[in-house]
Amino acid sequence: MAVRKNQALLTAEEKRAFVGALVELKRSGRYDAFVTTHNGFIMSDTDSGDRVGHRSPSFLPWHRRFLIQFERELQTVNASVTLPYWDWTVDRSPTSSLWAPDFLGGTGRSRDGRVTDGAFAFSGGNWPITVRVDGRDFLRRSLGTGVRELPTRAELDSVMAMSTYDAPPWNSASDGFRNHMEGWRGANLHNRVHVWVGGQMATGVSPNDPVFWLHHCFIDKLWAEWQRRHPGSGYLPTGGTPNVVDLREPMRPWNDVTPADMLDHTPHYTYDTEVQGARAA
Fold first, then answer.
1. What 8-state DSSP symbol labels residue 6?
2. Domain of 35: which CATH number?
3. Which residues contact 267 (CB under 8 A, 6 or more apart)?
4. Do residues 133 and 118 lie in contact, with contact meaning Cβ atoms separated by under 8 Å?
5. CA–CA distance from 264 to each of 43, 118, 217, 238 (Å)?
6. Which of 29, 10, 192, 190 is nearest to 83 (CA)?
7. For 115, which DSSP code?
8. How far apart are the C-alpha atoms of 181 and 223, rounded to whole Å?
9. R_g over Cα of the chain
10. For 81-122, how does the pLDDT look when each residue is reduced to its tens digit (9 = 90+)?
11. Are 218 and 84 contacting, i.e. CB atoms less than 8 angstroms apart?
12. How many CA atoms within 13 Å lie on the side-chain side of 232?
């Protein structure tokens, strides 16, 4: 069983293995297919039309399936690799180990945002940006520039306490856990992190930055924790809802995956805190 770990606890060898698998997927062209898919859904998901990956109840199960598919691709390169998560309520600084040269590299230079250190720096030749929203072909970041502060634990706790998964109108105006976690209302959790990182992370081609996977892995972990905390609060809506994915409807681009299929992550992976909790019990 794959165990997803906090990135701050990865060993040097685990970091090398993860980075190496990312670089190989990029070299083979398989990485950019995920960037293209994500950008396509960002562009097509709208508040008043069909919406699947964003601004909708299926935001969480859609990204859970997206991460599972990506993790499996990494494991074709190195079977030991799993997705780590970034707890941005703890590792809140541009000087955190997450951004060190031996892992994801740091912020971009001031004049154009170009990342200049680590395996994903343009100068290394391993990470050309080919699926892009402008002419720049290098990884860009501007940590802490778009917004100064990452979400706090107190802000997160207030969202985790919400007992309703989602509510009409099932878009960015909805009240409930999903929309507050996605960041269109309230403390602006998920969305704020994208903006804090900046560069490609603040656009539809956000998976160009490998930190995308660590951020969404943490969002997925939080959803799993919310599910345990609110066992009587299931996915909504359950049926007959225009423009969004109901509980047992397939989610594009997968014709055979529904939100119901993604409610339990444990057949696919666990998180390190869940393993520790099971041992403690």
1. B
2. 1.10.1280.10
3. none
4. no
5. 28, 35, 15, 17
6. 10
7. B
8. 9
9. 18
10. 999 999 999 999 999 999 999 999 999 999 999 999 999 999
11. no
12. 1
In one letter, which amino acid is 203? T
Neighbours of 243 (CB within 10 A): 16
Q: What's the rounded Cα separation, in Å, for the pair 281 and 279?
A: 5
Q: Which of 184, 153, 154, 150 is nearest to 166 (CA)?
A: 184
pTM for the full predicted model:
0.97
- Give the integer Cα–Cα distance in Å for 254 and 56: 17
Question: CA 259, CA 261: separation in Å to the nearest integer?
Answer: 5
Q: What is the pLDDT of residue 277?
A: 57
- The total number of structural domains that make up the chain: 1
DSSP SS3 for 4: strand
Find the domain containing 89 and state its range: 2-280
pLDDT in tens, 137-184: 999 999 999 999 999 999 999 999 999 999 999 999 999 999 999 999
pLDDT for 197 beyond 70: yes
| Residue 75: exposure state from Cβ atoms within 10 A (0-12, 13-18, ≥19) | middle
Residue 59: HSE in the Cβ half-sphere, 13 Å Cα cutoff: 28
